What we know:
Blueprint: E1 3-8, H1 18-27, E2 33-39, H2 44-53, E3 56-60, H3 68-76, E4 85-90, E5 93-94, H4 101-108, E6 114-118, E7 143-145, H5 147-150, H6 153-160, H7 165-169, H8 171-181, E8 186-190, H9 200-203, H10 205-210, E9 216-217, H11 219-222, H12 225-230, H13 235-244, H14 249-259, H15 262-268, E10 272-274, E11 290-296, H16 302-309, E12 316-322, H17 325-339, E13 345-350, H18 357-365, H19 367-371, E14 377-383, H20 391-406, H21 409-421, E15 425-429, H22 448-458, E16 477-479, H23 485-488, H24 502-505, H25 508-522, E17 526-531, H26 533-550, H27 558-568, H28 576-587, H29 589-619
Parallel strand pairs: 1-2, 1-4, 2-3, 6-8, 10-17, 11-12, 11-14, 12-13, 15-17
Antiparallel strand pairs: 4-7, 5-9, 6-7, 14-16, 15-16
Helix pairs in contact: 14-25, 18-25, 22-25, 28-29
Amino acid sequence: MVRWIVYATSRRLPGPDRSVVHALAALRPFASRLIVVHPGDLEGTSKDELVAIADTTVRAPGDRFSPSAYALALESLGPLDSVDEVVLTGDAWFGPVRDLGPVLERMDETGADFWNMVENVRGVRESFPEQSFSAVAQPWQWLAVRPALFLTVAWKDYWAQERTEYQQISQEVDFAAHFRALKFAGGEAFPVASFTSDDPSLFASEELLDAGHPFVDRAVFTSYPPFLDRNAVLGREISQTMGEYGYPLDLLWENLARTTAPKTIYANAGRLDVLPEVVTAYDPDKPQRIAAIVHITDLNGTSEILERLEHLPTPLDVYVTTTEGTSAAKLEQRLEAWVEGTDRVYEVRVTPASFGRDMSDFFVAFRDILRSDRYDLVVKLHARHAWWKTVNRRRYFRRYQLENLLSSAGYARNVIGMFQAEPGLGLVFPPMINIGYSTMGNGWSYLREPAEALAARLGINVPFDSVSPLAPYGGMWVARPEALRLMVDVGWRFVDYSRRYDRKYRSLARLQERMVTYAAGELGYHSRTVMNAEHVAISHTAVDFKLDQFLSTTHGWPVQQIQLLHRAGYTGYGGPVALVRMYLRLHHPRVVRTLGPLYRIAYKAYGPVASARRVLGRLRPQKSEGE
């Protein structure tokens, strides 16, 4: 069979995408001609790799995929008279996970004019634009067309039509219905009747793989997490099944790290690991060169930090910063005694007191360490005296961070073992703390705009999470220095953390804390979180109760409850103005769109007025007692 395969990419490829190259290499033996159509220009090694494997590359206009790219590619190739089958596909799937050959051999025997890989009778998938999960046109999963169709006028007319954005999104789903209505014979390699879903590609991935389907729809990892939750689509299990069938999972995580918001991957793929206290996943024959970078201004926390560091395998180099000479001298004495009789090495550096605290010391004072090639991993810890927190909050925060990273010797080795097993793992840290802190639901806080500006400055194109970023809140983590390179190479200065730069960064230390996963993702490194069993018991029960309370006043599945609350908008403190605004947003959205600009002007004007009233109130003479 003379088969032309047209493979479309969903986005411009500024660098090599190994999952795409892997897919093309697997398609190559089945393609008499392999054509890659890509939005925008190819750059550097990405161009070299695609040119080496494909017969033809075609540039499509824009930076994102449009179905018209297929027509453009076919037009540029000339007549199809000698072709037996044209396949339209693209990077909407990961794979092949199973052997593609048997499926093609089976479908070669059918007399269909066209056939899809998997039948979908559900139609266009639900989208969630208010939650930043808008539907966009994606490369087609797999459509094979034969001469009885592609040599007809109906085929040419189909591609000549002008389509709306929605029609472009639904085009692959509507293709079969359109041509069946014109009396062309269609078929499916995996019909819906064989599975327990009307959209098996999304909702029955493991069933499909077991039946011999060669691909996994990328939507099982990139769709809105509460939507997948409602349908019990478990990306963690699906990825494990892919690995069991032999798909190299490092390609999966590398692609998702670059193309998908980190917390979306985290939720859909279950990237939290509860590690045991005994060694189960550490190879002593592959030792890692480890540097611990520690900021200490609360000397009372020194003993606990050193006790945790003892859980790490040796050799271990420890770098400590503090902000004044007396503390440095005391730390020197403690560390000297601590390393005696071991192969540990330490160094103490005195740094200026800075609003950046541990983050400025990490990215400025130890830039030389992070940019060197001396270490495979860096462990970032700190002991600060947060006088504004209650004793319980301080104690639990420190427990939560240190125990979830370095709970015991066995636990710590399991953390290091994660990096041994996954070359693309960039950062490991505890999940967002939810006890004693109100970060949940407001992780970006006032930092979203400066984060976007910093991402543009650093060339980070990883999509942002809409509510809270996946981040090491609290500033403690284990990481590969290579994964931090974008953040390190900026050349930060201590002065960047001062009040002088508040207008630019708001709070640079907190901004860096939220951006490290995005900077790592741009380089293809993914992030994971870890907990020990003790803190899972503490944290999960707290979240369970709070979520149960939070959803008690709304009806339906969580995905529907979330949609309702998002449509209502910000509640503030539930005052009359907020409640009227929420009512209008829910029931009279046109009024809100009309009055919205006026409301924002009034809101901005209210701030200076309120400030002036407070100042005048302070200046007004106070009545003496008895007047």
